[in-house]
Amino acid sequence: MKNPLPRRARIILFLATAVALAAPAASQDWAKALLDKSPRHQEWVKVTYGSRTVDAFVVYPEVSHKAPVVLLIHEIFGLSDWARSMADDIAAMGYIVIAPDLLSGAGPNGGGTSAFPDTQAAVKAVSGLNADTVTADLNATAGYALKFPAANGKLAVIGFCWGGGKSFLFATERKNLSAAFVFYGSPPPNDSLAGITAPVYGFYAGNDARISSTVPDTKTAMAAASKKYDPVVYDGAGHGFMRAGEDPSNTNPANTTARTEALKRLESLLKGM
Fold first, then answer.
1. Which helix (H) or strand (E) holds 232?
2. Long-range pairs for 46-49 at CB < 8 Å and ≥24 separation?
3. What CA–CA distance (Å, rounded) separates 142 from 153?
4. Given the DSSP bridges, would you call strands 151-160 and 96-100 parallel, antiparallel or unpaired?
5. Most buried pick, 99, 154, 171, 255, via CB within 10 A?
6. Cβ neighbours of residue 197 under 8 Å, at least 6 residues apart?
7. pLDDT of residue 9
8. Checking phi first, is residue 50 left (phi over 0); if not, alpha (psi -120 to 50) or beta?
9. pLDDT band for position 27 (50/70/90)?
């Protein structure tokens, strides 16, 4: 049957559909461009333990001495171009950064984050990850990186969004941490706080009540457990300000301000580890 739409209309419809389908993949082209311009050594490694293999992205700093390892836990969107770009930003401060793709093997045809057809599919998959497997992946990845000849034995963890919550939880389970950095992530259960041995530093958005409203109670619980918890809330910023603050499409200046201030604070805290 002949297509009832005029040829011009069909072309416009095709182009619109193509743009819509490409949007999730192309939405972080700016982050990929930053990665491509980086002078630092980047590589992919395979972390194997038991029968499982986790793909992880590593960035080395340009320094003449051994450096601490920073374990980076990605957002609920998986190990995106932005997450890898953030790893490069931290490496620029003088740290070896390793970022595991916690969707390794969970994607179509056994792939990871990049194998998912769109952002929402990746979000659904991350939301369904087994908590014990995530913890095991993180421990294996941290252990792998600490064996690098260029690593000095110190380990910190940093996470964003979903990964922020996982970084806080990881601090309750990993005993050799030097510090934990929680970017707009949910706190772990109060009864797990006794396991924390490292200082926990929080970075929260003022316009993110879902997460920032947990801060007062978390401060109380951490104080009761005699644990160090130092949160900062950035007024006017929205959830995900570390990513949104450098996204060219960002329309909230408070996100940019929060990102700038948070980076300065993070660098200072890392130096003080």
1. strand 229-238
2. 47/100, 47/137, 47/140, 47/141, 47/144, 49/136, 49/140
3. 10
4. unpaired
5. 171
6. 171, 175, 177
7. 41
8. left
9. low
